[in-house]
Amino acid sequence: MLGEYRISGRRASEISASVERGVGDGGLEPGQLLPPMRELARQLEVNPNTVAAAYRTLRERGVIETAGRRGSRIRARPASTARESIRADIPEGARDLSKGNPDTALLPALRDALLYAAARADETPGLYGEEALDPELARLARSDFDAAGVPGGPVAATSGSLDAIERVLAVHLKPGDTVAVEDPGWGSLLDLVPALGLRAVPVAVDDEGPLPDEVGRALRAGARAVVVTARAQNPTGAAVSAGRAAALREVLAEHPSVLLVEDDHGHGIVDLPVHVLAGAGGGPWVFVRSVSKAYGPDLRVAVLTGDPETVDRVRGRQRLGPGWVSLLLQRAVVRLWTSGAVDAGEVARSYAGRRDALVAALAERGVVAHGRTGMNVWVPVADETGAVARMLYAGWGVAPGARFRMAAGPGIRLTVSTLGVEEINTVADAVTAATGRGVEGRRYG
C-alpha cells in the first residue's frame, strides 16, 4: 500500500509528522492510499485513537483526504506541496514569462519614501502597545474605499492580500468548512485553503468574473465563504462587470450568513472601475487592497475594511502573532500614495497595451486567449505539458495552468509585464506553434 515508505511514531504528532515528511520528500505520492487506522495502529503498537488523532491532524492541514469506507489517501495537491513547485525550469537564454511580477520600470523609486518613513520613526518610534495602524494610512484607505463604493467599516493593515485572506478565513471558519474559490484562480489561495484545514470547491469564471450559477451551486451545497477577485484576476485577467456584480449580489442575498472576501489586488494597475459586492448578503465581509502590484511586491502591505466584528477579530489574532505591520512600511506607503509617485492611469495603459496586443495577435492566428485586465494572459490548451515544453524550446518560459486550476481545463499563463511591443508577434507565433488553435468560448475550462 505504501511501497517502501514506513510511517513511524508513537504519538499522534509523531505519526502525522512522519506522513508529512513522506509527502515532502516524495516517499508518499499524491493519491496514495494510507493504511486503515486499526491496521496502522497494530503496526506501530499504539492505540487506534492515536492514529485517528494523527489522521485528523493531517486532514485539517490539508495533507490527506478521507472518503468514508474508501479510506484515507494523500491529497492530489497536498498542502505541504506548494503549487509554485509546478513549473518548468527556465534555461539560460530563455525569456521568463511565468512569474507574474510587475514591470520594474513602472514601479516607483523607494528611497524618498523610506527616508520619509525613517524620519517619522525618529520623531515617533513605533512601540509595543501603541496603535497598530498609521492614522494617515487609515484615512487614505478609508477615503479610497468610500470613493469605490465600499461600505463603511474600520480599516486594518496586513502583510499583503494573502495574509489578509488567511486571517479572515481563520477567524471565521473551522477545519472542514468549505470555501468557494475561482477556478482557474490564484495558486497561492488554492494552496492556502487546504493548509487551513478547509475544503475548496471550484467556481468557474469567465471574463466578467465568477459565474453566478456556479456561486449559487457552491453556496447551496454548504460553502461557508466565497472569495472573489474584483479585477486583474490571476491567471485569467477577469474583472467583475456591473452586470455580473448585480447578479452575484442577488445570489449572495440568498445566503446572509456566508463570509464574502473581495480581493482587489489589481488596484493601481487597472483602469476599469471596481464593482463592489460587499454588503449584498448582510453577512460578514471584507474588502482587501494590496500595494504589491503598483508599488512593489517587497512592500508587504495591504489594507482591508469590513464589518466591525470581522476586522476586530483580524486585529485581535494579529496581535497574538506579528503584532502589527511595520509602521515604517505603512508610512512609506503613505508617502508613495500622497506624492503621486505612481501614475495609475499610465501603468494601467502600459499593461493594457501589451496584454491587448498579445490577445489580439493570438486571435488573428486563431488562438483564443483571455486577458481583460491586469498583467497576465490565459491561453486554454489541449496539451498543457506539451505546450509548456514547446514554448521552452522556442525560448519562452510560461506558467503551467496546473498551478492555477482544480476542475478547469488545461491552459498556460503568460505574464506580459516584461514584453516589448515589438516582441508581441514573436510570442504569438510561438504560442500558436506550441498550442495550435484555441477552443472557442468565454468560460475557462
Mean pLDDT: 89
Query: Main sheet, how many strands, which sense, barrel?
Result: 8 strands, mixed
By DSSP (H or I, 4+ residues per run), the number of helices equals 15
Percent strand: 5-15%
- Helical percentage: 25-40%
Radius of gyration over alpha carbons? 23 Å
Low-confidence stretches: 438-442
Number of strands: 15
Strand order of the largest sheet: 4-11-10-9-8-5-6-7
How far the N terminus sits from the C terminus, by CA atoms, comes to: 34 Å
Order of helices and strands: HHHEEEHHEHEHEEHEHEEHEHHHEHEEEH
Class inferred from helices and paired strands: alpha/beta
So what's the overall shape? Answer: globular
Concise structural overview:
The chain is 40% helix and 14% strand.
